[in-house]
Amino acid sequence: MPALGQEGFLEGSLSTKGYWNGSRYVTKEAWQKDPKNPNNSTTPTKSSPSIAPDEKIRITAPKVNGGSTSSLRYPREINGDTDYVVFEFFDYDAPFGRAEGETTPIIDNSSSAKAFYDRSGSKEKKKPAGLSTIILYMPEDIQSQYGARWGGADFSTASVGLARLAGTDLAGPGVTVSSGAGMAKSKIYDTILKQINEITGSSIGLDQFMGAVSGTILNPNTEMLYEGSQLRTFSLSFKMTPKNDTEALEIKRICNTFKKAMLPSFGGQALLGTIEAASLITVPKLCQVTYMKGGEVHPYLPVYKLCAIAGVDVNYTPDGSYATYRGGSPVATRLSLSFKETKLLFAQDIDSKGGISY
User: Which backbone phi and psi does 277 adopt, to 5 degrees?
Assistant: First the structure.
């Protein structure tokens, strides 16, 4: 039996801590008022150390048993003393929609603009009914990929000169004498080439013609330019082997929950929600994926913004042969999940001080 005042988790929860009062774990407030508490005002146990997130990056540990439905988990023995991954489901929030009573914000700086951008990607959203929180063991292949789009662009000599005039180089002329001579030469060759192609019906290029006649071609002035960021994608895979009928049913419910969450609903609200229109479909749910260490967000693994479920693959014969138990449940099931974040990451989202970060 735990010692009086020993820290643990409230019954049915993996994230809400409590204190043993001799018969069960109670909340901190209840323990401080409990007559069995020798201090009767202070918590007698020491909390486990955790890494606090950066002030600008607020990461909240999920309430595992939040909502109206109990959590699903595999294996059933997962508890608050181990590492695990939590999947929470939320209704899709239209990025440019407006909640009742909400006013259009006045965006006057980059901080306000980013807060508005992240608004629909935050986790403070409505949990849908019928979709339980899912808790699974830590998968074997945890990765985090960050991508950016860069592409090369060719600038003609004339374009370089004009670009310099449009940029910060305003002290002198944008086109030098040497570059002007090259431009004049290419113009002459281009005029001659057009006549040759018109008379002969050929399609010789300017660089081909200049190289063949003078041994020179136009300098392409190629520059590598930033074109944008890429939404993060990641995949997780879990192999589940039930030990009894209860766990077999739990695995089936876990797979069905992910299927249900990723699919759209037939019909949708119209006229400000006053009618249900059969000509519409409702956008699928979003998922918050959180790696946990005990009752806290894992301090070393990446965290994610709300994600769209891009794929759910269920393999009922992961070992290459069909085998079931007497009741019909597969001996093993492999669940492969693909996710895509709904919001881009920016430099402000990364904590360079070593705290919890994207």
Answer: -95, 125
